[in-house]
Every structure is written in C-alpha cells, then in structure tokens.
C-alpha cells in the first residue's frame, strides 16, 4: 500500500485511516491488517476502538496553535538552511513573541 508523501505526516500516520478500518471491517485480523498497512498492531487496535491520538489528547495543553507551530517550525528550518541554527532559548523567545503577536 502506498503511503502519503506529505512531509508533515509522520510515516506511521501516512496510511489512510479508512483503509485499515476497512480491512478489519472486512474480516481481516487486526494483526494482519496492521502488518499490511505497515503500522503497529496497538495503533490499529486503538484506531478501531476510536481512541484519540496522543497529539489530540494533549491538544488542550499546547501553547501554540497548529498554524503557529508550523510557522515556528518553518522559521527554524530556514534559519538552519541559512547556516544559523537556533538555540533552545531562541526558539522559546521566538515562540513567546510569535504567540503574543499572532493569535490564531
């Protein structure tokens, strides 16, 4: 099965949810469906049972919105590409300034 090539989607999350659910609904065991989709058995079992992902479960604790987080990530990558990698302190300060200036 082909995975998505979106760099924002981790490899283990590149399998469309509908396909793995469909396999289980069609009678394929969770173990075999997970192996065919290239994901962990417990991940598929959680999906079938409707569990939330760790990211979704912690969403209320995030300090930045998804848009702000993506922009911060893009800034970090640009700085590294320019040969000026940023420190943890710089990331924290930029995030603080970014959060106060742009409210999404």
UniProtKB/TrEMBL annotation:
Residue stretches making up the HTH CENPB-type domain: 56-104
UniProt-annotated stretches for the region Disordered: 45-65
GO molecular function, one term: DNA binding
Pfam families to which the protein is assigned, alphabetical: HTH_psq, HTH_Tnp_Tc5
Biased composition (Polar residues): 45-55
Keywords: DNA-binding, Nucleus
Nucleus in keyword set: yes
UniProt-recorded name of the protein: HTH CENPB-type domain-containing protein
Organism: Fusarium oxysporum (strain Fo5176) (Fusarium vascular wilt)
């Amino acid at each position: 099965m082909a995975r998505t090539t979106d760099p924002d989607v981790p490899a283990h999350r590149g399998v469309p949810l509908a396909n793995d659910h469909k396999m289980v609904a069609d009678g394929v065991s969770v173990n075999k469906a997970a192996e065919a989709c290239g994901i962990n058995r417990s991940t598929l079992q959680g999906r079938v049972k409707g569990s939330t992902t760790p990211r979704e479960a912690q969403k209320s604790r995030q300090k930045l919105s998804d848009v702000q987080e993506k922009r911060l990530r893009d800034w970090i990558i640009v700085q590294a590409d320019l040969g000026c990698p940023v420190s943890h302190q710089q990331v924290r300060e930029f995030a603080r300034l970014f959060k106060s200036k742009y409210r999404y």
